[in-house]
Amino acid sequence: FAYVTSPDAKAVTVVDAAARQVVGRIEVGGGPLGIAVAPDGRTVYVADWYAAAVRVIDAASRSVTASIAVGASPSGLAVTPDGRLLLSADRDDDSVSVVDMATRQRKATIKVGTRPFGVTIDAEGKRAYTANVGSDDVSVIDIAEGREIGRVSVGMRPYAVALTLGRGFVTDQYGGTVSVFDLASLKPVKRINVGDYPEGIAATADGKRVIVACWESNTLSIIDATDVKVIGEIRTGDGPRAFGAFLRKTE
């Protein structure tokens, strides 16, 4: 299943990914924005922008079962690969909340750059990366230590980060670019021109390509992650936006 947040409608729509049909709607109230699914697929987490909370949804019953207090204006969410921790980018607190999923309580707060929006966790569950729209940079977080360990300058108004082949790819909304940096050295690699107002970004399952949703140009830009260049473009409907995992993983 795919889960789509609708802030104005105060709901989450459930889509059957195989049939490509809407199969449910979950009323969550507030302003549902960022969304993440637990690794086992049983639980869906939704950031409520207005309530400084994360709503917990049971995927089987399609109902809200709990609410977890986090910081102001939570936006991006990410779950560690083991499912034990949830990270919430709390935009108006300039911080990231770390939530223990066993107790469903916030266990730590990590200060990052100005107005963090998207948050991404690496495949090992060791580091997290926040796109800081207010300071035009990316914060690098050591999850175990619970602190920021680095900062990378990127383009104007970074929205989200994708990770693949030892590099970070960051959408620069106002720049119409994707900034690329090396994950080991945290040094800039390149800045790639894409469509207008790029927001959502994700790597394909094989890690070879990075897909970028460009809101104003109504396109998806396709980047070759090895050669670090745009190799294609797909026309979409009006105003494509994406936040969280928006690519279907296939074997």
Low-confidence runs (pLDDT<50, min 5 residues)? none
Structural class: mainly beta
Distance separating the two termini: 16 Å
The fourth-level CATH homologous superfamily of the largest domain is YVTN repeat-like/Quinoprotein amine dehydrogenase
Counting structural domains, the number is 2
Q: Give the second-level CATH assignment, the architecture of the largest domain.
A: 7 Propeller
Q: Bin the helical content.
A: under 10%
Give the overall pLDDT as a whole number.
96
Helix segment tally: 0
Beta strand count = 23
Strand content: over 45%
According to CATH, what is the topology of the largest domain? Methylamine Dehydrogenase, Chain H
Cα-based radius of gyration, to the nearest Å: 17 Å
Shape: globular
Helix-strand string: EEEEEEEEEEEEEEEEEEEEEEE
**The first-level CATH class name of the largest domain:** Mainly Beta
Major β-sheet strand ordering: 4-5-6-7
The biggest beta sheet reads: 4 strands, antiparallel
Description:
By secondary structure, this protein is mainly beta. It has no helices and 23 strands. The protein folds into 2 domains: 1-153, 7 Propeller (Methylamine Dehydrogenase, Chain H), CATH 2.130.10.10; 154-251, TolB, C-terminal domain (Neuraminidase), CATH 2.120.10.30. 0% of the residues lie in helices and 57% in strands. The strands form 6 sheets. A 4-stranded antiparallel sheet has the order 4-5-6-7, with no helix packed on it. The chain is globular, with a radius of gyration of 17 Å.
